[in-house]
Amino acid sequence: MEDQTTAETGPVDNAWAIKIPKFTPEDNPHGLLEESKFATLFPKYREQYLKECWPLVQKVLKEHHIIAELDLIEGSLTVKTTKKTWDPYIIIKARDFMKLLSRSVPFEQASRVLDDEIGCDIIKINSFVRKKETFLKRRQRLIGPNGVTLKSIELLTECYVLVQGNTVSAVGPYKGLIQVRRIVEDTMKNIHPMYNIKSLMIKRELMKDPRLKNESWDRFLPTFKSKNVPRKQPKQTVKKKPYTPFPPPQPESKIDQQLASGEYFLKDEQKRAKRRHEKEEKQLQNKKVREEERKKDYIPPQEKVKDSVPVSNEPTVDINKFKAKMKKASKQQKLVTKS
Fold first, then answer.
1. pTM for the whole structure
2. Where in the chain does DSSP place strands (E)?
3. Domains 24-116 and 118-224 fall in the same CATH topology
């Protein structure tokens, strides 16, 4: 007898392989004592879809003796139990069903939550990142090009995953939901989803090998190493002023400035005359600036003069050499005439 009890209550190798017995109406013949009720708000853009599929929603929930109400004025979905409801947990399932419908999950996938072995998880992802640009990049990384990454996550975890706004909705078996949550949270923490996808694929293959059942799989799984990537520095760096405990001096008011310049004591006519004079001076200055700009077009450009070679007065021919040359030429001429 002791061996039998220890076998039933002892540790289990694979808890996911245990089959949970099905809950039937015979297990709860007296029904529920009190009515339970849940309401969920939905956005305006889901109104048309909910109108179309609402008869199907009521039909599915009627099988479990749950009443569903659609309030288009307040924009809410309400579910509540009846006297015939025998499953105490079905109201929680119905509540999750309404949440998924409001989060843009199609009716075919959302209705799977009502099964015992299927659950749902709505993961908020907007709290992981502060900047909107990085949030959009990481959310797109989770989806992947043409939704390839999301499809691979669905195939490995056997869950339906939908990325919508600031949340990720997942519907599937409880083991797959844990894996989906880990992948989504790691992605928003700047760990690429391919690391988790690869590890899931490797684990699936290793489970088939009975020799590696009792060994550690760490040597086969990919490890993520964070790298300090140099980021772009801002072009304009704001220099901080030295800290002083004293507050900055209070700026002078308009009346203080008029008192300092003496304008406060002038009469209204004098003030007008002063303003007029300042205005005229300003106009004259602007007029001069405009005239100078107009004259710029008529000023001829300065010509580039080439550097002239300086002419020297000194003779370039050596006179002594020239005399010797002439004497030699005359001697040669005399010799020619004598011969």
1. 0.61
2. 37-41, 66-71, 76-81, 118-124, 160-164, 167-173
3. yes
